[in-house]
């Protein structure tokens, strides 16, 4: 299997796969976090785009599975055309919260959501539009701030990976079309629009990044 993504969530998943005896053929990362020690001799590629590696991904992938975890790269036909199955672990329930976790979490709080979750889905040519395998939900309490929800979301994302890894390898995962309902995309424009909601009673909660301030310094500065 091949992993594409970045950060602590990516490397946590890679370690789980390696510790479980799975074959990790390649890790493609943007370099936001370095590989932890103890993972053996992995083929790690630091890249600016995933498309140019398409042929190598197809030839190197021994089980036909690609995992997208905390991944900012978009998959094009270089990867999607062919026999690979690409799974993405998305930071939000679909289709209502497509896009960047920074934006989905902030806007979920602004929108007064009492529940949130992570989604495991197959990747298609759209952005977070592919059929859903599973959703890991958790409540948002009235006093929860951005930091609290993001921590819960990261745990939900990792649980989706660990709970479904073996079934993915066995080829027994079933994906179904995304449920009916409003579809919204929270991308970079939604991040920039957060300060427009200063009059929202949930604004302070939605912008209290806590320990994630260092991870999202631009948002921390703009949202104050």
UniProtKB/TrEMBL annotation:
**What InterPro entries does the record tag this protein with?**
Formyl_transf_N, Formyl_transf_N_sf
Q: Which SUPFAM superfamilies match?
A: Formyltransferase
Task: Give the Formyl transferase N-terminal domain ranges.
Answer: 86-162
Top-rank taxon: Bacteria
An annotated GO cellular component: cytosol
Q: Does the keyword Nucleotide-binding apply?
A: no
GO-annotated molecular function: methionyl-tRNA formyltransferase activity
Question: What is the annotated signal peptide range for this record?
Answer: none
Keywords linked to the UniProt accession: Transferase
Name this protein carries in UniProt: Methionyl-tRNA formyltransferase
**What PANTHER family would the database entry show?**
METHIONYL-TRNA FORMYLTRANSFERASE, METHIONYL-TRNA FORMYLTRANSFERASE, MITOCHONDRIAL
């Amino acid at each position: 299997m091949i992993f594409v993504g970045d950060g602590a969530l990516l490397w946590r998943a890679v370690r789980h796969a390696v510790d479980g005896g799975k074959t990790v053929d390649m890790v493609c990362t943007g370099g936001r976090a370095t590989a932890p020690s103890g993972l053996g001799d992995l083929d790690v590629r630091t890249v600016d785009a995933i498309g140019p590696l398409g042929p190598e991904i197809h030839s190197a992938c021994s089980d036909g599975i690609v995992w997208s975890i905390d991944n900012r790269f978009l998959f094009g036909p270089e990867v999607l055309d062919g026999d690979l199955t690409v799974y993405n672990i998305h930071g939000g329930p679909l289709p209502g919260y497509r896009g960047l976790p920074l934006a989905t979490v902030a806007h979920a709080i602004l929108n007064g959501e009492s529940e949130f979750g992570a989604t495991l889905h197959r990747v298609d040519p759209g952005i977070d539009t592919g059929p859903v395998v599973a959703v890991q939900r958790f409540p948002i309490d009235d006093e929860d701030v951005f930091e609290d929800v993001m921590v819960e979301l990261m745990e939900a994302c990792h649980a989706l990976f660990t709970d479904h890894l073996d079934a993915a390898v066995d080829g027994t995962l079933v994906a179904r079309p995304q449920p009916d309902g409003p579809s919204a995309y929270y991308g970079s424009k939604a991040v920039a629009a957060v300060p427009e909601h200063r009059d929202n009673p949930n604004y302070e909660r939605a912008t209290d990044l806590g320990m994630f301030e260092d991870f999202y310094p631009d948002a921390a500065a703009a949202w104050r």
